[in-house]
Design goal:
This protein is of the alpha+beta class. Among the domains are: 193 residues, 2-enoyl-CoA Hydratase, Chain A, domain 1; 92 residues, Pdz3 Domain, CATH 2.30.42.10. The protein is built from twelve helices and 23 strands. The strands form six sheets. Strands 1-14-15-16-19-20-23 form a seven-stranded mixed sheet, sandwiched between helices. α3 runs antiparallel to α4, α3 packs parallel to α5 and α4 runs antiparallel to α5.
Length: 459
């Protein structure tokens, strides 16, 4: 039966998931080995935020007698999961008891799994929580390949740690503040690079259709297919700087390599300032950062350090925070009278607490990339430069339903020591620097990175 196949797939996925005074020198960037980087690391970091919970009776509701074709029973099970586990016991203002009556009555009229899934999706949307949603078995591939809290799409078919894979080599992932559809990065060996596309180029049209930002952002159906092999070449209208005329570029699909995201370099000799690109906080990110620091300090101590966590989907940044600071940041847990919260403490210090530190953030600094700058600010350890982080601080758990579908539900959130929340707000930079039209193309360093260098140089 289809539901049994879906359930087996779900269990497999659950097991795989982890619940200057001187002149600035020419950059000496070094790509890093080690953990996987790029879009697949993005997927892994986001996926690891989810802990799968088997279909045991949640909230006292006994689902043991519910069968995959018991649409009322499955609706009851889903409602009780939210009732017992949702992060806020006010359900964001939704009358959850009234919703129970309404949706159970609708479930009595359901005649198919498709109708049931439509109903469950609508019920979870009553929470008005972008993190929480119902996932159909047929959507598992998209859901677990990317795991985004806003858009579920497959972003890439290439892996930067293999010699070559098929793709375009374009890294496009608009941040919430972006007024333009930027090319964030281009893999050095790729069809996009061969077409002359570079970091900071702005895409104004795809196949002749103008790119327009709405209140909901850029249409993902327009930009997501540019990243993986959709089968046919496409034409991009590119503007390379405000003084350039738009031009049409045809981009196909082919071998892609040179996509390593982890890197480090010395960006100023006097004062001696180091820079580390941190694309995600998965795996051994803290060890990777510490090894880069040792490399840069082989000849002399750093006078300042810049950690660039822009476009970082998260993971777990506690160990990284412990390189630089020690102390209580706040509490983590549900916002419910019947639940306890735990102290969120950073334990260190593995490097030092004195060297000036700047953290670069943007609207695509998610989850652990919200937690890290929040911890650095709360403990007085760093200056934030760039744009506000994503404000994606809710922890998500996946609850299995008996029909093989799941509910991904927000169950915890971070509160700082003063009781304030970053959810939906993010960490506001000390020095706010919008990219503007040309900021990402600025040489030798983009406008946000240059602002960080200037700050540490006392300019």
């Amino acid at each position: 039966m289809k539901w049994k196949t879906a359930f087996i797939l779900l269990v497999a996925l659950a097991l795989l998931a982890g619940c200057g005074a001187g002149e600035t020198p020419t950059p000496t960037a070094k790509p890093a080995g080690g953990p996987q980087t790029g879009p697949l690391a993005t997927a892994a970091a986001l996926n690891n935020q989810v802990t799968m919970v088997p279909p045991t009776p949640p909230g006292g509701y006994d689902a043991s007698g519910v069968t995959p074709d018991d649409y009322v029973g499955i609706t009851e099970q889903a409602w009780h999961i939210v009732q017992a586990n949702y992060v806020r016991d006010n359900f964001n203002g939704a009358d959850w008891d009234a919703i129970h009556v309404e949706y159970v009555a609708q479930a009595e009229k359901v005649n198919s799994s498709e109708e049931l899934w439509d109903l469950l999706g609508a019920m979870i949307r009553e929470l008005h929580d972008d993190h929480s949603r119902h996932v159909r078995p047929g959507d598992f591939a998209d859901e677990f390949e990317l795991g985004s809290n806003s858009v579920q799409y497959s972003l890439s078919d290439y892996s930067p740690n293999r010699d070559a894979q098929t793709g375009t080599g374009l890294d496009i992932w608009p941040a919430k503040e972006d007024e333009y559809l930027y090319v964030w990065k281009v893999c050095s060996e790729s069809p996009a690079a061969s077409a002359g596309i570079v970091r900071g180029d702005i895409i104004t049209a795809v196949n002749g259709k103008e790119v327009v930002k709405t209140a909901d952002g850029f249409d993902p159906y327009q930009w997501v297919p540019l990243r993986w092999d959709s089968g046919s070449p496409f034409t991009l209208t590119i503007q390379s700087g405000s003084d350039a005329e738009p031009r049409d570029v045809q981009v196909g699909f082919g071998e892609v390599s040179g996509c390593d995201d982890w890197s480090y370099e010395i960006v100023s000799q006097d004062p001696y300032i180091g820079y580390i690109r941190v694309p995600d906080y998965s795996g051994d990110a803290a060890s990777q950062i510490m090894s880069f620091i040792r490399e840069m300090e082989a000849t002399q101590p750093l006078d300042g350090l810049i950690l660039d966590q822009r476009h970082n989907p998260g993971g777990n940044s506690d160990d990284t925070a412990g390189l630089f600071a020690d102390g209580v940041v706040g509490t983590v847990g549900p916002l419910r009278a019947d639940k306890q919260r735990t102290t969120y403490r950073i334990r260190g210090v593995d490097w030092n607490e004195e060297t000036p530190l700047v953290v670069l953030t943007d609207g695509n600094s998610h989850s652990a990339a919200d937690y890290f700058p929040a911890a650095m600010r709360e403990l007085g350890r760093a200056t934030m430069v760039g744009m506000p982080s994503a404000g994606n601080t809710e922890g998500i758990t996946g609850f299995n339903l008996v029909d093989g579908s799941i509910i991904r539900l927000a169950v915890t959130t971070l509160l700082l020591n003063d009781g304030s929340s970053l959810e939906g707000i993010g960490v506001i930079p000390d020095i706010e620097v919008p990219l503007g039209f040309d900021g990402l193309r600025q040489q030798p360093y983009d406008i946000q990175l240059q602002a960080a260098i200037d700050f540490l140089s006392g300019k």
